[in-house]
Design brief:
Largest sheet: 8 strands, mixed
Strand content: 15-25%
CATH topology of the largest domain: Purple Acid Phosphatase, chain A, domain 2
Distance between the termini: 52 Å
Helix content: 25-40%
CATH superfamily of the largest domain: Metallo-dependent phosphatases
CATH class of the largest domain: Alpha Beta
Structural class: alpha/beta
Length: 380
């Protein structure tokens, strides 16, 4: 039997020793046969900010050493911030991990390295890992040169091919995905369909990250899909004071048996990830219920909300030559933030690119506009 520990997103600005969780949680991580996290940004001190829309993230170089001390064996790099400081920072991050004998997967200096699965033999079980992210800045999609750096794209045909190959070669196939709408506790329909397709190809477990909040899980045939684990440790300015109540996974793998798991509930307190007492634990039953009979209604509400509150205004702003986002109040607020240097001036071309390429935003916009059109012209 193999015990795997898998957790969500990590960014560390604050801890100079790289230690981000309590001794109790560190013991759970170390006691597992193999432990995995999503390393959300490159280490500091290398490269220069890449042209992109949105914030650039980095984290302390000592974070990798701290993760090693606390029991981690692998870092997932396929995420929307790993290329924030270009190839130099990506390479430095991979080199630092290699020097500490921590495996990396999901990003690389060329197409081959980015899409290369990680195959590990643990306790006589052969496990294949694939890590990929939705299309954002840094993605290696069909328009990327093969010899350019970046991360693996979750919707590339190569991901499908790799899963099928690993299914023939390995006892278990685990897909680690970074995709979806941030700050919503239900997955988008398109990701549910995509992940189930991965299961049809041979994936035994799908584990999601990126939404920064936990979402539910469901069984699909003999596989299990965890849509989002939420943050593990995230201390950027907008998360520093948040509890980040979420959960990690203890997976038990046995040959020719269904995957078993136990959730580990945790939250951030006094600057470290702590085990959550019952009253602070994520309600997984409620999150799972969101995937049931009310899912379609919740999905419509989510799509309309993100479109009307975020996407529509930013899209209008990005496409106009003058500073207007379709709403007078928010336009004034945006302008004042620029005047008083509370917000950096946005490159409208890069903002447009981000809004149109970001698959989670595309899915939400398409679905919201379909709902609006049906309400206007009648549902068919």
């Amino acid at each position: 039997m193999v015990k795997l520990f898998i957790t969500g997103d990590i960014i560390n600005y604050e801890h100079s020793d790289g230690l981000v969780c309590s001794d109790e949680i560190s013991k759970v991580i170390s006691d597992a046969d193999y432990s995995i996290c999503n390393f959300e940004a490159p280490i500091e001190g290398y490269g220069t900010p890449s042209p992109k829309s949105g914030r650039h993230h980095f984290q302390r170089k000592s974070t990798i050493k701290g993760l090693q001390k606390q029991g981690f064996n692998m870092m997932c790099l396929a995420n929307n911030h790993i290329m924030d400081y270009g190839i130099a920072a990506l390479k430095a991050t991979i080199d630092e991990a290699n020097s500490l004998k921590i495996d990396t997967v999901g990003a690389g200096i060329n197409f081959h390295d980015a899409y290369k699965p990680l195959v590990k033999e643990v306790n006589d079980l052969k496990i294949g890992f694939i890590n990929a992210c939705e299309a954002q800045f840094g993605v290696k999609d069909y328009y990327s040169a093969e010899d350019h750096p970046g991360y693996a794209w979750i919707n590339h045909k190569e991901i499908d091919r790799k899963i099928s190959v690993l299914n023939e070669e390995c006892d278990f196939v685990i897909v680690l995905s970074h995709a979806g709408l941030e700050h919503y506790n239900i997955p988008q329909k398109e990701w549910r369909v995509r992940y189930k397709h991965f299961c049809d190809l041979g994936a035994d477990v799908i584990v999601g990250s990126h939404p920064h909040v936990p979402q539910g899980y469901e069984y699909y045939n003999n596989s299990v899909i965890f849509y989002s684990l939420g943050n593990f440790y995230f201390d950027s300015s907008n998360y520093r004071l948040k509890e980040d109540r979420s959960y990690s996974l203890n997976l038990n793998l046995e040959k020719n048996k269904k995957v078993r798991f136990d959730p580990l509930f945790h939250h951030k307190e006094n600057g470290y990830v702590q085990l959550s007492p019952r009253e602070q634990q994520v309600n997984l039953d409620l999150l799972n219920a969101n995937l049931g009979e009310n899912y379609e209604e919740l999905h419509e509400e989510m799509s309309l909300e993100i479109y009307n509150k975020t996407i529509k205004k930013n899209l209008i702003f990005s496409l106009l030559s003058f500073p207007y986002d379709g709403n007078i109040k928010s336009t004034i607020k945006r302008s004042l933030s620029l005047i008083f240097n509370k917000r950096k001036k946005q490159d409208k071309t890069l903002l447009s690119l981000h809004l149109l390429r970001n698959e989670a935003y595309y899915y939400a916009t398409k679905h919201a506009m379909e709902i609006i059109s049906k309400d206007k012209y009648g549902r068919r």
